[in-house]
Amino acid sequence: ALDEEWESFAAEAGRLRHQLRREAQGGVGGAAFAFVEGALVQAVREGHWLLLDEVNLAAPETLQRVAGLLEAGGSLALTEKGEADAVPRHPNFRLFAAMNPPTDFGKKELPAGIRSRLTELYVPRLSSPEDLSLIVIAYLGPLLPSPPVGPIVAFYQAALDAAATTLLDGADQRPEYSLRTLCRALSYVRAAVPLGYGLHRCLYDGFHITFVAQLQARFQPQVEALLLRHLMPPKPNKPPRPPPARAPARPSGDGWVEIGGFWLQTDPRHTASAEDPRFIVTPSIEARFRQLARMVAAGRYPVLLQGPTSAGKTSVIERLAAATGHVLLRINNHEHTDVQEYVGAFAPDEHGKFVFRDGALTTAVRHGHWVVLDELNLAQSEVLEALNRLLDDNRELHIPETGETLTPHAHFMLFATQNPPGAYGGRKVLSRAFRNRFLEMQTDEIPAGELTTILERRCAIPASFAAKMVSVMGELQRRRSSSRVFAGKAGFITPRDLFRWAERRPGTYQELAEAGYALLAERLRSTPEREVVAQVLCSLLPRVQLCAETLYERLLCGAPGGPPTAGPHEGGTVWLPSTRRLYALVAACMASSEPVLLVGDTGTGKTTVCQLYAQAAAQALHIINCHQHTEAADFVGGLRPTRGRTLQLEALRGRVAALEAEAASARAARASGPGAPADGGAGREGGS
């Protein structure tokens, strides 16, 4: 710890010395800013060609900057650079633009002034059997002497017909089966057949992850039947069945692990974890784990997991990353996520000089880590569409701030998770073109029987407790769906509430009922709703009686400083029954290390109770007043001018004195410790 303190002090002293040197030199050597020409300017100057992909996603004001280049003899004025002269258009410069029709989510009409200057060509969807046959032959012809061209084309056309009429994906939309979907299935077959999986299993796996996995569970058997009928070999008097999921012989070389019947590459730079006691494998979790392993074995295509909250989307990715020895980075998306959080931004280094620092996504691309974009559809579609180039098959990440274009490391893998739009607040519908770039996997809720097993094993509670808790959840959800007595789109109780309930470690049924009441009922606003929760708990848990006042007193006994007495106290605090109730419930949350949300009208004592509890626990309490313009920098910090050199020098001298005193104390402790030489340093002779 002392070494870390000295290293931190050295870095702080270096920054101050660098700042003083710059000021002594009149600012010379400070952070220099220069205009860096973008790809458009370079192409115009040097006569290169430029493609504006997804052009109708750009703002109309941005597109107006290129309007002058669309005319003969046009030029580009660099007003941002402060130059009056325009950049003339090179004779060899050519511009292409591509866009999806403005009928999809997030796609806009191209401004008329821009569109009229472009020669427009329509690209129809590829549907001719002859053209599709040529694509299948191009992928599988070099691999197989007689590829199953006809059956593959027949299945693809049958899947397109079903998608247009009956099928629904996890977002309650018609699935988008495109030429990219077909080509990725064929790419899987082409890559897996040489590894010894067998043609028919490769066909089944490749078309299952691309055409079946994204559908709702009730529609998956329909497409699986098409898959078996067209692509699996017929047997006399027997319906076609999926091929067995047995792993072939181990591929040559080191760095392979077998998961769910598939050989996956491990990262030799890190150690793979064979087991995780907190990851409980049940039949549905095992099927989900196997499906994800199948998708990872397909290559380096991005994978999107969609399903309800607490369905285990992120945990199954974390477990697969640990099993294959890959570092997993997580990016939590939100309404104000911007591209810089993915790619990176300029930030000061240890000397105060601005340098570009990679974001989590750029770090993963460079070093071959896995990255998961949590809550994908909370981010703005304009931000997500900036990842299109990385999600395509050519896989590139362009960094505009540095002009660098990265090709991902061989081990890089991108995952994303999201809740279905519409069922959860703030979740947006992603465009079909964007989602089509992912291999999608629909995850449903964990069955009640398996949830009981997970609660018992993960939270170390008796099986009888786990079964009763799951039955309480089912009854509360049933009553909500029939009488609408509980508010909230996500339901009154979720599996996450069950885990929080179990983590309170009840030892008896009475404690189980009280913990459930404190967690589930005390967040409701009306007395009838709380009575329904109490009624369900008392009816399903044996030999329990719920009394709110008794519960509060028991919780107060475990609070810091013991239960407060009623009436006025020092500092003007009056401990009303409502204050004691809230203090007791906060104490229960703190005992289980739970984050707390207090909801109530102004002046009801929410802030006061937090201050009182922090004072009783002898903890420093920082308060941030949020408002409509609060941003992340208010929480985590941001770049600020470095001022107040006198105060900084005084603080630095104080740290030096403290470190010297700590070092002297450590030297004295070592000198007087066991084995220290006695008599001024002279050694002892003989034994004791």
- Count every helix, treating DSSP H or I runs of 4 or more residues as helices: 26
Number of strands: 17
**Rounded mean pLDDT score:** 85
Largest sheet: 5 strands, parallel
Radius of gyration from the CA trace?
A: 32 Å
* Beta-strand content estimate: 5-15%
Q: Report the end-to-end length measured between terminal Cα atoms.
A: 35 Å
Low-confidence stretches: 27-31, 481-490, 678-688
SS-derived structural category: alpha/beta
Overall shape: globular
Cross-sheet strand order for the largest sheet: 8-11-14-7-15
Helical coverage, percent range: 40-55%
Describe what this molecule looks like in 3D.
With 688 residues, the protein is an alpha/beta fold. Helix content is 43%, strand content 10%. Strands 8-11-14-7-15 form a five-stranded parallel beta sheet, sandwiched between helices. The radius of gyration is 32 Å and the shape is globular.
